[in-house]
Design goal:
Mean pLDDT: 80
Distance between the termini: 80 Å
Shape: rod-shaped
Number of helices: 5
Order of helices and strands: HHHHH
Helix content: 55-70%
Radius of gyration: 25 Å
Structural class: mainly alpha
Length: 104
């Protein structure tokens, strides 16, 4: 069975329709994909620490210490108050707070 090719105008119309569909799906899914990426890999900036989900950065900050300097005291206090830390992370956090001269 032999396939018939579309005429030139019909082929161009099909290409433009496919391109428009892909562009529409990209615009619809793009912002949610960026949000999902930022949810999984939050940026390590002061703005991220100051957000309502800044506690998500606690585990990374604890794991990176002492290779990286300890975060500011208010960030460490937030980790102590809101972060769901294991006992080992909580012990390490207390060490970080002592090293950074943070008061309890």
């Amino acid at each position: 069975m032999r396939r018939r090719r579309l005429p030139g105008k019909a082929r161009l119309a099909a290409f433009i329709a496919g391109l428009a569909l892909a562009l529409g799906l990209g615009l619809a899914a793009g912002p949610s994909a960026i949000g999902l990426y930022r949810l999984v890999f939050p940026p390590d900036s002061d703005a991220a620490w100051d957000s309502k989900v800044g506690w998500r950065l606690c585990n990374r900050a604890i794991a990176d210490w002492p290779g990286k300097p300890a975060a500011e005291c208010w960030k460490l206090a937030m980790c102590d108050n809101e972060g769901g830390l294991s006992e080992a992370e909580r012990t390490r956090l207390k060490q970080m707070m002592a090293a950074a001269n943070c008061e309890d």
